[in-house]
Amino acid sequence: RAKTEGGNQSIIFDHSMSKSVENHFLIERELRQAVHSGQLKLFLQSQVNNAGVIVGAEALVRWQHPERGFISPTAFIHIAEESDLIIEIGRWVLTEACRLLTCEGLAGRSIVLSVNISPKQFRQPRFAASIKHLLAETGADPTHLKLEVTENLLIHNMNDVIAKMIELAALGIRFSLDDFGTGYSSLAYLKRLPIQELKIDRSFVQDVTINPDDATLVESILAVAKHMKLQVVAEGVETEEQASFLNARGDVIHQGYLFSKPELAADWLKRLAQQ
Ligand code: C2E
Ligand code: MG
Ligand code: MG
Ligand code: MG
Fold this sequence. Notes:
Residues 24-275 form the EAL domain. Its main location: membrane. Helices cover 39% and strands 21% of the residues. It has 10 helices and 10 strands. Strands 1, 2, 3, 4, 5, 6, 7, 8, 9 and 10 form a 10-stranded mixed β-sheet that branches.
């Protein structure tokens, strides 16, 4: 079951709902309307350093359904990915993030916003050009924009993918490897990628203090990152114990419910202003 976050509405959308072909197309049609009628909302989740200072945030899309409330992307991104909707949704999120970067609350601050890029979106022939256009249009500082890609992007046509990443990195845009360790890929490619950051997946962080295997995995990721001079973001930090475990072993940025849940951009800006 997909759980909604950041809103007081409770559950809505069952993953099994989208399993039947009929429902799949129903949801796709509703989603298409949603994109065009302003039902997508931008949520942001703070990323804090070991002193608790907000250094960035991840942009996380929500679907504000008129009857069902806020719907988590885990319930609809996979449907969007099977159609061209993911490209429109992705473009919308990127535009919102770039606009946010130029807003008053962020001016003069070195806050970096991270945006998830789906493989299909990244593989668009005009992806790099559209990013350049968007930066020019909004005036957003490319060095404050970080694109989160997953290992699965690298399975096919790795050379093309890397070339495109290098083209974007040359603009000052940063890259993060999301859900690190959960995809299908080898460590060998890491040294070829123009990335600045690894994100430890929540599934490793969850039991890091009670499961020795997870602890070893996390320690290994920290060692690789240190060796390659990559920043590490730990996803899904929920307890003080998890935070201490990580802080004792490296210089880690935390993202999780312990610090804050994803929240509407306006609320996140208020949080930032109070800091
Ligand atoms: P992700 O990129 O790995 O994002 C992290 C997910 O972990 C988010 O789920 C976030 O709300 C959740 N999370 C963070 N801290 C905690 C915690 O302490 N506890 C728990 N239980 N969960 C935590 P969310 O927002 O539901 O997004 C799920 C996935 O949907 C994202 O995983 C990402 O893969 C995808 N997604 C979200 N927004 C976009 C988007 O704009 N474009 C694309 N392509 N994918 C998106
Ligand atoms: Mg992400
Ligand atoms: Mg992630
Ligand atoms: Mg994840």
